[in-house]
Amino acid sequence: MNISFTKMHGLGNDFIVINNINNSLNLKEINIQKLSNRHTGIGFDQMLVLEKTLHKNTDYKYRIFNANGSEVQQCGNGARCLALYLKERNIIKKSSFKLETINGIIQLHFLDQNNITVNMGKPIFELDQIPFNFTSKSISYDINGYQMGVLSMGNPHAVIISKNIKNIDISSIAEDIQNSLYFPDSVNVGFMEVCSRSSINLRVYERGVGETNACGSGACAAVVYGRMKGVLDQNVDVRLNGGCLKINYEKNNDVMMTGPAETVFEGTINI
To answer: Cys-Cys crosslink for 215: which of 51, 77, 98, 204, Cβ 3.0 to 4.6 Å?
Structure first.
């Protein structure tokens, strides 16, 4: 079976987009794992699959699969890439539109050719909805000796504030947290360095992928936690390994994320 795909990235967080509007494609986990392999496949952090939606006033649906084949609920960088994919092919011609995800409906808006704002919705703090196995809700939690904020941006995030994140071995810390009994669905672990009230550095170790060059929902979670701790203002520049995202969060409102997306190449691969 030949599959056509488009390789894209948002600040180095890379994807393939597959058009499955006719619902003819049904890939298994092992297929996705082979495609994601950077030596013997295409190579990507996540695979985005475009489908029809049954929701009224919503344009399309898309599903998100990690490199290990697991399906996840949310991906901010992926949403921007999918928006650019739809615009470049004239599938959608309007500047604002809605997409269905497994987690609900998100709204996207083009500021210019490549910069896209995504309404990521409200952060979720309810423990059973994250999900997070802890006795009671708090701003910060002590997990395996680390103080962290825990919340969901459509997918679970744990955020640790560190003074210098450049030289931290985040993989061992993150995997220890991900494999703990506190997170039944695992968790994305972010390491945030606060530079000022309007600027942070961030590294994110994503479940099912590892450390990525950028994580849109992780950037949102970090700013939300920083706001809860009182160390960040409403508008924050989030500097990741792959570049900068702009996050706007007024407490109790939706989180708005703005950043670029780029097309790398198109191709066909045989499964």
So the answer is: 204
